[in-house]
């Protein structure tokens, strides 16, 4: 009988461990499915035993029904649509989505599944609507305080960057970019340093800058909102002002937006532009540069009519000009 070597024993042990891990994963999946099904049955029994079931119970039952359909049913597309409709009505939907075995993988599968349609750009309206419903559910997870960091730690935002990197002007692509920006916008709304630090480690700023220049008005608004939130964080401001190249990239796009706003004065874009410049002026190096390169329309009365009823943005613009005065330092 030949001797069994240590390497063979180690190989057998690893094989057994892998098999055990697979079995454990399958058991966890079955337990999750059984839990959801048991919860659904309990909801149905509760409704049946009550003469008048409440609307909230009905909605919760539907949520679990669509979760099961999303994971194992033939109507996944309909489940995506129905769940996306319920995301603002059901406070704990993010927790259910994250902790239900297989749901996040299913949503990522929907996202990755349209990558081949990005280049060459062949994305249809139907495919765009479907993946945007999946993105809406990801936005729900990104917005929730208990799932936001889990969402970040899994690096899920990176799956959206190929969508932000598209340039096609067709409606399906515009909708795809806007919805993807909405997920990132949901992340930055709560002024979390963890979120900003994560985004700074990625290519989100160049992606947003390109959309700020050439996207639709709605996409521009969300993109500049994200950049503004990054600037409002001390680490974000320091990052953008750390090198001339970064400051120049942001300043050039903001300047181009001002030039566009002279032609078509859009208040919601203008107020974000002013706030970005104001925040940049808090950095000494950026402030010195802005004294030379702040667009003239922000110095004169070009936007006085547009800002007539927006006292907050008028104050921001006034403060910006005060900050750039020669005697401010």
From TrEMBL:
<dbReference type="InterPro" id="IPR011989">
    <property type="entry name" value="ARM-like"/>
</dbReference>
<dbReference type="GO" id="GO:0006402">
    <property type="term" value="P:mRNA catabolic process"/>
</dbReference>
<feature type="coiled-coil region">
    <location>
        <begin position="6"/>
        <end position="33"/>
    </location>
</feature>
<dbReference type="Pfam" id="PF04078">
    <property type="entry name" value="Rcd1"/>
</dbReference>
<dbReference type="GO" id="GO:0030014">
    <property type="term" value="C:CCR4-NOT complex"/>
</dbReference>
<keyword id="KW-0175">Coiled coil</keyword>
<protein>
    <submittedName>
        <fullName>Cell differentiation protein rcd1</fullName>
    </submittedName>
</protein>
<comment type="similarity">
    <text>Belongs to the CNOT9 family.</text>
</comment>
<dbReference type="InterPro" id="IPR007216">
    <property type="entry name" value="CNOT9"/>
</dbReference>
<dbReference type="InterPro" id="IPR016024">
    <property type="entry name" value="ARM-type_fold"/>
</dbReference>
């Amino acid at each position: 009988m030949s001797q069994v070597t240590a390497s063979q024993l180690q190989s057998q042990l690893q094989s057994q461990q892998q098999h055990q891990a697979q079995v454990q994963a399958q058991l966890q999946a079955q337990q999750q499915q059984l839990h959801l099904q048991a919860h659904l049955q309990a909801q149905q029994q509760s409704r049946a035993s009550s003469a008048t079931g409440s609307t909230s119970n009905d909605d919760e039952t539907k949520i679990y029904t669509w979760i099961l359909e999303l994971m194992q049913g033939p109507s996944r597309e309909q489940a995506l649509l129905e769940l996306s409709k319920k995301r603002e009505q059901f406070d704990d939907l993010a927790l259910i989505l994250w902790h239900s075995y297989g749901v996040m993988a299913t949503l990522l599968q929907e996202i990755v599944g349209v990558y081949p349609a990005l280049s060459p750009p062949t994305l249809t309206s139907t495919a765009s609507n479907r993946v945007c419903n999946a993105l809406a559910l990801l936005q729900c997870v990104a917005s929730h305080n208990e799932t936001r960091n889990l969402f970040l730690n899994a690096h899920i935002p990176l799956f959206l960057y190929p969508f932000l990197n598209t340039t096609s002007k067709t409606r399906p692509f515009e909708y795809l970019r806007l919805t993807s920006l909405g997920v990132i916008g949901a992340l930055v709304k709560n002024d979390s340093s963890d979120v900003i630090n994560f985004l700074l480690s990625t290519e989100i700023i160049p992606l947003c800058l390109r959309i700020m220049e050439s996207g639709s008005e709605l996409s521009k608004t969300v993109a500049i909102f994200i950049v503004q939130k990054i600037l409002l964080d001390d680490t974000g401001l320091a990052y953008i002002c750390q090198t001339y190249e970064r400051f120049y990239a942001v300043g050039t796009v903001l300047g181009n937006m001002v030039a566009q706003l002279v032609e078509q004065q859009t208040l919601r874009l203008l107020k974000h532009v002013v706030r970005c410049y104001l925040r940049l002026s808090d950095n000494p190096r950026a402030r010195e540069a802005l004294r030379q390169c702040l667009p003239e329309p922000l110095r004169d009365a070009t936007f006085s009519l547009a800002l007539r009823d927006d006292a907050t943005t008028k104050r921001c613009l006034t403060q910006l000009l005060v900050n750039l005065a020669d005697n401010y330092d």
